[in-house]
Amino acid sequence: MTRVLLVDDDVELAAMLREYLSREGLETTAVHDGETGVAEAVSGRYALVVLDVMLPLLSGVDALRRIRQRSRVPLLMLTAKGDDVDRIVGLELGADDYVPKPCTPRELVARIRAILRRSEGGEGLAKGGPVTVGQLTLWPEKRLAEWGDRQLELTSTEFNLLIVLARSAGTMVSKRELSEQGLGRPLARFDRSIDVHVSSLRRKLGTLADGRSCIQTVRGLGYQYVRE
Q1: In the chain, what are the domain boundaries?
Q2: What's the burial of 38, exposed, middle or buried (CB within 10 Å: 0-12/13-18/19+)?
Q3: Closest Cα partner for 155 from 91, 202, 77?
Q4: Which of 18, 89, 122, 214 is deepest in the core (most CB within 10 A)?
Q5: What is residue 4's three-state secondary structure?
Q6: What's the pLDDT tens digit per position in 133-158?
Q7: For the segment 23-39, what is each residue's pLDDT rounded down to a tens digit?
Q8: What is the Cβ-side half-sphere exposure of residue 134, based on CA atoms within 13 angstroms?
Q9: Mean pLDDT throughout 119-137?
Q10: The whole model's pTM is what?
Q11: Beta strand 144-147 with 150-151: parallel, antiparallel or unpaired?
Q12: What phi and psi values does residue 3 have, to the nearest 5 degrees?
């Protein structure tokens, strides 16, 4: 069974979700504070972490920051419904996706499976040889990325989005396509996840010879990786 870590201070909810996830083939361990969550998340024992924003001892945002200092484990944030600030901060710090609470167990499982498929290079993203565009080189099967001689530290979602953009270098890729291929889910109305992930990628990548970002916005439509 795939092992999942659930970090949520709502003991009743965590028990219910744990039981549901286990029935879905996801062996789930639940802990209830941020400090324990960090220790478990970086242990290497889990395929994915589900992390609530509101936690005792250490907030979910601070826990995520500590986890990302030591681990690239795929991570799904649970955020308050309508709280765009926590959502955006979580994505900026390296969360792969988020689910607003309250959520149904079925929706949570669907999001978890989507992230796991992408983190394992599923649905064609891992096929083919290295992809090179200018100074960027991606190895889909190894899920490694380099800019020149520098290895890039990318989350699984960032890698997925970058491989989609790089394979279509010189051509605009719509946000709908990026959401379906990079996040594994349809693009939701008013969802800014793609924009936040692309902003993070721009910070991690180098620039073109003229100083521009290699990922350009096609206003109102999507993004294009510039072919040098």
Answers
A1: 2-119, 131-225
A2: buried
A3: 91
A4: 214
A5: strand
A6: 999 999 998 889 999 999 999 999 99
A7: 999 999 999 999 999 99
A8: 16
A9: 77
A10: 0.84
A11: antiparallel
A12: -95, 130
CATH architecture of 131-225: Orthogonal Bundle (1.10)
Q: And the tokens for 115?
A: 């992230």
172-195 b/e with 16+ CB inside 10 Å = b?
ebebebbbbbbbbeebeeebebbe
What's domain 2-119's architecture? 3-Layer(aba) Sandwich (3.40)
Sign of CA dihedral 43, 22, 125, 154: negative
Amino acid at 154: L
176 Cβ partners below 8 Å, 6+ apart? 186, 187, 222
The total number of residues written for the chain in this structure = 228
What does the H/E/C string look like for 158-186?
HHHHHHHHHHCCCCEEEHHHHHHHHHCCC
Distances (CA, A) of 219 to 165, 173, 183, 195, 224: 16, 12, 21, 12, 11
What's at 28, amino acid-wise? T
Structure tokens at 107: 């929706």
Q: Residues 30, 36, 38, 42: is their CA dihedral positive or negative?
A: negative
